[in-house]
């Protein structure tokens, strides 16, 4: 890839991420119930895994929007949990996902 293309791609990525952030901030109240339902499901999953001793104590929960998912038009974020070692947690686990397609602005693309 050329430097020119990389600059264009980086600019476009940043532009779209800022647009998404602005949309999210403006529409948060509309989507809060869906976000809370998903969070409750994730918490239930975590508790069940802990009861089965498949997951220990967690210190961090992260919704991870992968850039590669956006490129593939996969509008989901992975939900990952970590112990106190965060990214160095050897037992980090994906405990669910969040489909955020309903809250994306219609860009006409």
Helical segment tally? Answer: 2
Distance between the termini: 24 Å
Q: What does the average pLDDT come to?
A: 85
Overall strand count = 3
Helix percent reads 40-55%
Based on helices, strands and strand pairing, what is the structural class? Answer: alpha+beta
Structure description:
The protein is α+β, with helices and mostly antiparallel strands. 50% of the residues lie in helices and 17% in strands. It is built from two helices and three strands. A three-stranded antiparallel beta sheet has the order 1-2-3, covered by helices on one side. It starts with a helix and ends in a 10-residue tail after the last strand.
Quick synopsis:
This protein is an alpha+beta fold and 109 residues long. The chain is built from two helices and three strands, in the order H-E-H-E-E. A three-stranded antiparallel β-sheet has the order 1-2-3, with helices on one face.
